[in-house]
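As a warm-up, study this chain.
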Amino acid sequence: MWNSKQGVDNVLEAIQDELRKQVSELRAKSASFQPRLAIVQVGGREDSNVYIRMKLKAAENIGISADHIRLPRDSTQAEVLEKLANLNESPQVHGIIVQMPLDSEHQIDSHLVTDAVSSQKDVDGLNTENEGRVAIGDFSGFIPCTPAGCIELIKRTGVSIAGKTAVVLGRSRIVGTPVAELLKWEHATVTVCHSKTKNLSEITKTADILVVAIGKPEMVRGSWIKPGAIVIDCGINPIPDPSKASKQRLVGDVAYEEALQVASHVTPVPGGVGPLTVAMLMRNTVLAARRQLERLLQPTWPLQVLRLNPLSPPPSDIVIARSQKPKHIAKLAEEIGLFPREVSQYGSTKAKISLSVLDRLRDQRGGKYIVVAGITPTPLGEGKSTTLLGLVQALSAHRGRNAFACMRQPSQGPTFGVKGGAAGGGYSQVIPMEDFNLHLTGDIHAVTAANNLLAAQMDARIFHELTQKDGPLYDRLVPKIKGVRKFSAIQLRRLKRLGINKTDPDSLTDEERTKFARLNIDTNKIMWNRVVDLNDRYLRKITIGQSPTEKGFTRETSFDISVASEIMAILALGKDFDDIKERLANMVVALDKSGNPVTADDLGVTGALMVLLRDALEPTLMQTLEGTPVLVHTGPFANIAHGCSSILADKIAMKLARENGFVATEAGFGSDIGMEKFFDIKCRASGDVPHCAVIVSTVRALKMHGGGPAVSPGQPLHDVYVQENLELLAKGLCNLGKHISNGNKFGVPVVVAVNRHGNDTQAELNLVKKFAEQNGAFRAVICEHWAKGGAGALDLADAVIDACDSNSSFDYLYPLGLSIQDKILLIAREMYGAGNVEYTDEVLDKIKTFTAMGYDKLPVCMAKTSNSLTADPAVKGAPTGFTLRVNSIFVSVGAGFVVPMCGEISKMPGLPTRPSIYDIDLNTETMEIEGLF
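Now compare it with the structure written out below.
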């Protein structure tokens, strides 16, 4: 009950107590979470400042973080709208209000401004969408604050509104109209009066509830009021009062003292509806914050699944991909819990995701972590990407679990060569598959540019040191600019590494200047090649510097394919911006003539590399054929790097998938190459613990390992691969057994996915399934996701769910403290089945050098063929006791691993006699790509 300012204060205190309790409950659900209100003010009117101070104080009292955002009086309408757009997109802001009136020198449409506030953050309730909802009785938005305060006060009297006669004086969009609608939906019979209403005092006398918002001081007299009525006075008007220091006082639209003699309840002015309006603003802000937190904490995404209509037999991959209309990428981003500011769209089907998501969700527990690898494959591939996508489609679209696929970005080398792209296949694909396989968002091109910038700077530095004396060289490295000479930040870092603790360029001695200026790169010990994202065999060895301008300083070098660049591996292994920057700085490009490493930082290029790679640091969001999310990021060459997508993509996916969700990612090639590196290099760098490994197997590959004839791209399959042959299959099962054993050695449950092909017989599939389960697999399932999408991988999804819920004891294969040779021996014996390891004298010498430099504490990234467990691609099955020969070794200091090379490993593939190029064309009428797949 209330009937005085003290009574209203009691109501206010009760509301504030409830809101404080609600804020505490929100904080209990997420420790770092705090409701946040942004109050936007244009100009600096003092009356507005008074109201804003009230709101800031109320927010602080309740536990809401409130920001007073002041825009100058010369702000234009466009500038105000831009500020509101930024606040709308900010995940840290839950409520936005614009203080009226707008005190600007320019004409600003206030209605346009209030409508520019997102309806989800419009805690003033003035957005047309929220006002419209109130009009039709939909209270799922926000109720305008003053009308909400009026209804709250009426309800606090204990009098039922239903069935009462209510009269509202005034029809403004801020008070009169919405309060009339609210009274109507509380089942009162409502009359709205305004300046054209006749016999006004007679109408007001009929009101059981009288709400006055007319803007005329003390217009409503006691004689206008029905005895016992509830009177809510929303007016506040200054009138002259010589007794006051300010010579005026504030009164309402109702003659308060007269009304007290007649009404049962009358709100005072000031101190009545005003404080309740602020309280309702706080209530709306807490409500907005709660809705956001509930959205973030809801166990499953509100995912709109795209329906498949599989054809039998399935048409080509490109036909299937084009038959599905993808969701707008902004819609998918919203469904999985991303905010607009965290999403940079590249058209309507792909978008970059900001790393700020990791900071926002730092307290969110991540989902279950799954790696998909394979047995030793045929040159055609056994469908790891297809299985990965079928699995997540099954988990998300069919089992209702939050599930992400994290994939590498494919190189254009295979796309235009023979193998084709890596978007999956059949009804388990990433779409649009043309975008996925061609350029995507340009990350590989950024890596190419960064890599080649470093190469260009290195060769330029060699040239300038060879053609200049010490003094001029130093002066050009540290020139006077506008009369001022100073070291750049990266040059100061070099000075520190050299032990020169000086910051004034003019203070260095001649010896120190020479030491600083000369890198003295040994051109016979350069480890940095240029790259291009194409298969180009004629770039495997080239001579550079043949122009007369280079004065005869030629040298032999070579090109690698772009994904073999150490920069790509660094992007894949970096945990944040600073970590990536440090790794780039530490890249060793050459040795100097004293045998010391020369780094990218020594060449002054680290910052420039970061600038070129800025956008490439962020993963790209795409979707599967069934509308489930895919994060695509990085694509390190699996032969000589670790062959996995990025740590950053996995971490973002795990946060967004939430505690009960799943993140499945792919490791290149078989368990011996890709999975081992995933565990020992990627998981060691990220600190993330995998819950399950999926090994993809096919009858075709196992028959090859049983002694079947060679399988070649572009050539028809031999009869043994298209007809039932249990004997040949049984002989090849040893390869599957080895890969299951490899997974179990890391302490994770291994699920075998038998990827069914059209010529496989049930007897063959059952033989593989039975063998796997008898030889260490947690479970083995037959999958038909290529032909059926997620529906064909339901058994696989169920097996993965159960495996992730089972006990696991993940551990690395080796500790980092072992010597380089001991690590190599462990990997060779445990993963490949080798008996011993041999080294060339040159390799042994390099191992001694690396050990002296401290590189022996790095993990080992073995480079060998993916076509065999041995280093000989012709050897199939699962041989044991063989000798593995290491014929070369190098170190990727920035990426953080030592790379022993076994056998012939080319970092630049070549085009075959008939590459896919012959089939690819652009239809100039439809502008569609033809012949890609």
